[in-house]
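Record now logged for everyone:
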Amino acid sequence: MSATDNAGKHRSDSPADVQAQDCLECRLIGTTAFSATGAYALYQSRRAAPGSPFGKRVTAVLGVALLCAGAGRWFN
């Protein structure tokens, strides 16, 4: 069978043509999980928290990366 039907319209039956869409609840849970973890990491990297300055910087970078992942999860 050809890739077009009798009316000449393109059929998208193959898995490569189907684009996965997440439901709103899945996006909301994923965004919340990434964002909350990123906010917690930023909270742990504050000046008054125990730990080395290098460890705090690494934690801050991780927190920002997780917040960006949360935003990417929401808009993707």
User: Anything to note?
Assistant: The radius of gyration is 21 Å. The mean pLDDT is 83. The CA atoms of residues 34 and 62 lie 11 Å apart. The chain is about 60% helix and 0% strand.
